[in-house]
Batch of 2 targets.
Target 1
Amino acid sequence: MLVVFIRTLILFLIVVVVMRAMGKRQIGQLQPFELAVAIMISELAAVPMQNTGIPLINGIIPIITLLVAQLLLSLISLKSVKARGIICGKPNILIENGKIIEANLRKEMYTLNDLLEQLRIKGTSNISDIEYAILETNGQLSIIPKSQKRPITPEDIKIDTQYEGIPLDLVIDGDVNYKNLKRANLDESWLINQLNSLGIRNIKETLFVSLDSAGKLYLQKKSKEGEGH
């Protein structure tokens, strides 16, 4: 039993490291060859877990081999546009200027029902409002509305807006993020003074504290045990 536990733990750690080395992507964002590698890695890891008679190295070597192959293909895709088209495929236009391109639907084996479903998911119900609908290489459908149907932006009505950067997380679950404090040219003394002015005597009492680009502090205290139940 202990052997099975140790083998499973080792294989789990190897798979986590391998998947991390492949890059941060959601399943829906994987290219076809990346998805194939992910599935094969999970299968290769499962066999030695279930059968202790198979040497552990027999599962590790194929997993590492697949990782190397995946990294090589990714590198080739980065270096060569032509190779990228062969390995990953090319985007295909399914709707152009409010008209469905039937030939491209057949080429991608994409049914009209599939197309309509994806349009509804994207919040678009009227095909005539679409300038382009593009099937990306990872299977996602990108929609570009006609200019008359796009939401109005401040630029369209000539309104100047203030810069909005990403808020900096200063405290998460009671722990100070000193890197972000330094990035904002602030220190812990400033933070403590700000919290004291808001009635917080101990940083550990805070669940989350952030600072936006306008210098406004957002604060949420930790709830007391049993509160909200």
Target 2
Amino acid sequence: MGPDLPAAVSFERLQAPFESASDAVARFDERLRSSPVAEAFVLRAHFHDACAALWRIGEFVQLEDLVLHDAGADVRTPTHELVRAHAVLLTRRRIADREPAWALTTDGLASLRGAGSPQNAASAPTNGSRAMDEADEEPDDEEGETFGAGEFDEIDELLTRTSRVIERAQPAPLKRDDSGLVYDDDWDQEARIAEWRGRLDGARNLPPLMAACVALDAWEEIEPLQHSAWLGPLLAAASLRSRGKTRHYLPALHAGFRQAKYRRVGRDDFESRLTALACAIESMAKADSKELDRLTLARELLLRKCKDRRTNSRLSQLVDFCLASPVVTVPLAAKELRISQQAATTMIGELSSNLRELTGRGRYRAWAVI
């Protein structure tokens, strides 16, 4: 029997599946370290994991819609599911951009679940609006100059767009339902979070992958949050990073569990659940390895189109964008490369033999790497 495991659990029976899964994760992490498409893979993994997180709770979000929504180029009004998937996407990016152990700290976990943010969010606009009011009271013409009403319209528009991006990147304050119809009034989130953190601390002496699985199983058993249940696998992935098991990416556990055949049911015992989680993570690592091979081959084929080009050609930049984004459209390519839509259409046409057209329509077309 291993350390910090219940007496009924056999460490010997868990050793084989966890060693196999641990080796698969370590091999893929090492491959990613020296891969030329590592950054593209990481960017794609964020989108795939966000869609898989909604799928696991019974909601369907198309990958194309999430990419367009993230770029601010929605073709229709965003649905509630799409907004939630985008929240998962932003949370994954926050965890991946911070220090490996940040998400598991008290402050990091409080920030991710939105605890304490309403006061900060409420005070910031007040200060900003007060500063704007004071600025409005002061005359603009210190030396007697007068400015036309429309001279600063472009600056105001730029500030407005910047404010929208900042507000979208910050975690939204939690809205509690006071009627008791949606959220349980007796649900003590703080106590449940404390219980889960106790399970996490109790698994520190276990191997990294086993400790992450124990933390994830405890999250699904305790259910600390009535909302944002998708945060558990992200914290388990952060646990792998903090223990040094994955140094070059944040594992997409949601996507791995979506591919796995195992579905958690109440009658499964603890040992069976841990074994199933290990097998799911191993399947995730193998699928990620195949995806890395596919992106590497696609990059080689696309870069062949860039040979004998002018030195100022942006075709190679378009190749990088096609690899990094799961979906490419003409407006997105034009915005990313800062070129006209006509030029973007021409460049995409030059790469069309190695791109797959998704829509089959004459307008609002989208492409993906084969």
